[in-house]
Specification:
With 96 residues, the chain is of the alpha+beta class. The chain is built from 3 helices and 5 strands, in the order ββββαααβ. The chain has a 3-stranded antiparallel sheet with strand order 2-3-4. Helix 2 crosses helix 3.
Length: 96
């Protein structure tokens, strides 16, 4: 399966919240007092997190982002793959 056709779903053990000008992900099954388990997302990563629903493909998420941001396709593709890999590495998302 091409990366563009993959679908991701959120790990239900993570919650995301916008607090002031930041967006944070917090694992709710971990010790929330442990600051190493709280992740801050930049604007693009937060938007990707919001678009992940288990139904949209990576290609559909990319298309949405291209409509919303002023960027080139290749630049966005690289950022999208990096952010998805980072979200996977902290186990906040997984492939369907």
């Amino acid at each position: 399966m091409d990366a563009i056709d993959r679908r991701y779903r959120k790990n239900q053990d993570f919650v995301g919240r916008r607090i002031a000008d930041e967006y944070i992900l917090v694992p709710i099954r971990e010790k929330t007092a442990d600051l190493r388990s709280i992740f801050t997302l930049n604007e693009t990563a937060a938007r990707i997190w919001e678009l992940i629903d288990g139904k949209r493909t990576v290609g559909e998420i990319k298309a949405s982002l291209l409509d919303e941001y002023e960027t080139t396709g290749p630049e966005l593709e690289a950022d999208l793959q990096t952010i998805l890999a980072q979200l996977e590495s902290i186990q906040s998302i997984s492939q369907n």
